Amino acid sequence: MAVRATLSRFPSDPDVQESCGLPWGVIVTPFAPADELGNPPAIGSDGDLLPRCENCWAYFNTHCELDQWSWSCILCGSLNGLTSRSIERYSHSQQACPEMCSSFIDLEIPVEGSGGEATLAMPVYVAAVDLSSSEEFLELIKSALLAALEALAPGSLFGIMTFSHKIGLYDIQGPIPVVKNVFIPPDSDGALPVDLEDAMPLLSFLAPVDEYKDRIAAALETLKPTTSWERTTAAGQGLDGILLGGRGFGVAMEALVKYLSSEYGNTFALARVFAFLSGPPDYGAGQLDTRRYGEQYASKGEDADLALLPEQTPFYKDLADVAVRSGVCVDIFAVTNEYTDLASLKFLSIESGGSLFLYSNTDDSTLPQDIYRMLIRPYAFGCILRLRTSSEFKPSHSYGHFFPDPQYENVQHVICCDSFATYAYDFEFSSNDGLSRHSDPPILQIAFQYSIMVPQEGPLNAQSESNNRPKYFVQRRLRIRTLQYTVAANINELYDNVDSESILSILVHKVILASLEQGVREGRMLLHDWLVILTAQYNDAYKLAQHEIGSVISSVDVTFTQCPQLQPLPRLVFALLRSPLLRFHEEGVHPDYRIYLQCLFSALEPTSLQRAIYPVLTSYSSPDKQAYPRHSLSRAALITSGSPIFFLDAFTDLIVYYSSTADPSLPFPPPQDCLLRSTINRLKQERSITPKLKFIRGGQDDAYLFESHLIEEQDVDGNGIPSIVGFVSFLEEVTRDVMEYMK
C-alpha cells in the first residue's frame, strides 16, 4: 500500500490551508505490494482478533499507547480495554504480532459466512467477441485470446461468447466445437426468445483451460465476421430508411451477466468478462445514437465537449450495478477509429471493477500484450477501502473508480483492483481550531479489506480426473497502514514540503470532474485560475511582488525561484492544458479518446501520471552512456545539449530519437545489450499498459511523433490554432493575470 501526501507537513489551521493555495490530500495505491519506499507489510493471521477502538473503530497500531489491560487510540484518544485473548497475546510474544512490529500490516481474516471452512471457487473468464467486425479485427482478437490462455492459471474456467444480431455460445468440451445461437429480436427490449441457460448449461459453456486449451484455440480459429447481407437482413431498415447495423452488445452483455449470476457464490467468487468491440452498439437494447458526433455544435453556438462527454443512456450504468451484484467484472477493449460513444459505455467497465482500453487501429495495437500483462498481475476483489483520520481533520472528497458505501461515510467499495489501481482523497479541517504543533501529531489510518484466490495444495481426492484439477479457495485479508505526520510551522515550511506529482494527481481528478459536469472550457479555466491564485499567494507569502509608485505592481515571480518544490507546477499545468484531456473538440480531439484518457489518468499513480502529461526527455552520448537525465520539452533543449541520442518516455509511448547530426557510426537502433535498451525493457516491465516503442532517425524518418511531444514550442503541431501557445507565452499570460489578481 503506497501512500503519498500532497503536503508531507500538514497545514496548522483553515486560514493557512486557504492562504497556501495548494490541495491538501493523499494518493493511495492500496494493493501495491510495498509502500512508497519499497518496504513490504508485516504479514500475519488472526486479523479478526486485532483490537479496535470502541469510539471511532480505528485499529490498534504501533503508534498507540499500550498498558497491561488497556490501550489508548491514537486517532481519537479513547481508552479501550483489552480482551483476555489480546492480553495473553501481547504479554507473551509481542515480536510475533505484526501490529506490534510495524505500522504497515497485512493479516488474514475469516471469510464471512464460511463458518471457518475454506470457500472453494474457480477463477472464471469469458471472452465476448464482436462479429459485426472485420477479418483484421478478429485476427487481432484471436492473438489476444491466445496470449490470454497462456497467462491464465491452471484450473481456470474459460468461455467464448460471440455477439452480432445473434448471440453465439461455444461448447468446446466435446470432440468438435459446437456453437448454439440465440437470435436477438430487432425490436429487442433486452428479452431474448430463450434464456442462455436453456440454450446451453453454464457448466458446459465454461471449460477448464488446462484440459481444453487446444480446443479453445481451435474454436477461436472458427471465428468469422457476420456478412453485411446477414446483418442487413436481420436488422432491416432503420430510421429514415438508414440500414441499421447488427451489433447487439447491450442485449448480449445483459444476457451474459444474468447467465453467469446463477453460479456466483458456488462455482466462482468473481467472473471476469473481456468484451471486444469494433464499433458502437447499434442493435437492440443499449444501442447508441452516434449521430450526435456529427452535429455542427460551433454553428449552433453550443459547447461540443459539454454535449459529447455525458452518457446518452443510463443502460450501461444500470447494467454495471447488476454486474456487481452478480459478481461479474467487465473489461472493455474497443478497437475502432469510429465514434463509439465510450462516454456511455465506460460505466459498464469502470463501475464493475474493470478497465477501458481504446485502440485506434489493428496494425500496431498492443492489445495482446495488454491482456497478457493484465492477467499475470495479481488482483484483489470484493474490496472495501476505509480512511480514518484524527479528529481535527477529515476527508472532504474521494476520487477514483470505486463507489461509496450507501451507509457508512468514507467507506468505498472496489469490485476488482490490481497493484496499479490508485485512488485520491482531499482533506478539510473539522473545525477552525486546526492542528497544534504542540499536541498529538495528525494521524491517518487506511484499512483495505480484500479477497484473493489462493491455489489449494495437494489433490483433495484422487478418485476422479475432475477432482485432480487444481483447486482454489477464497482468502480474505485485511491490510492496514497507519501514518503519522507533522505540522508545518508556517506557510514557507508548507511550500518546502510539497509533492508536485501528488498535487498533479488531485488537479487531474478535479479538472476531469469539472469537464464532465460543466465542459472542457470550465475545466481549463479552473486549472488556469488555480495556478494564478497559487502564484499570487506564493508572491504574497515571500513578499516578492515589486510595487511602483502607489499600489501598481511592476513584477511578480511566476517561476517560484524561492521554492524548488513548487518549480515543476507551472510546467505541469501548462502540459495539462496542452494535453488531449483539456484541448477542445474543434482542435481535433476525438471524444472517445478524451473519455479513454479520463479513465486511464484517474487510475494512475502520481509518477506514471506525470510522465503521461509531461514526458521525461533524457539524452545519451552513446547507447551505453547517459548524458543528462532530464531536459525541458523544447527544440532549444535538443540543440543546446549537443547529445546525439534522445529518449522520450511519454508513458504510453517510448521514443528513441537520433538527431540529424548524430555520428553515423553510432549503432541504430540501439543494440539489445546496451544501457538504453535495458532502461527501455525495465520501463516496459513496470508499466500497467504496454507502451509503444518507436525508433526515429532525424533527417531521414518522419519525426512528427517525437516533435509533437516538444510542447514548450510555440504552435508545435503547426495547426495554427491560436489557443496553442508556447511555455514562455504562457508564463507571460500568467504574469499578467497574477498582477491583475494582486491589485
Automatic annotation (TrEMBL):
Organism field: Dioscorea cayennensis subsp. rotundata
Pfam families xrefs: Sec23_helical, Sec23_trunk
Gene designation: LOC120261489
Domain Sec23/Sec24 helical as annotated: residue spans: 499-609
Record protein name field: Protein transport protein Sec24-like At3g07100
A GO term, aspect molecular function: zinc ion binding
Cross-referenced InterPro entries: Sec23/24_helical_dom, Sec23/24_helical_dom_sf, Sec23/24_trunk_dom, SEC23_SEC24_subfamily, vWFA_dom_sf, Znf_Sec23_Sec24_sf
One Gene Ontology cellular component: COPII vesicle coat
Ranges where the Sec23/Sec24 trunk domain occurs: 122-374
UniProt GO BP: anther wall tapetum development; COPII-coated vesicle cargo loading; intracellular protein transport; pollen exine formation
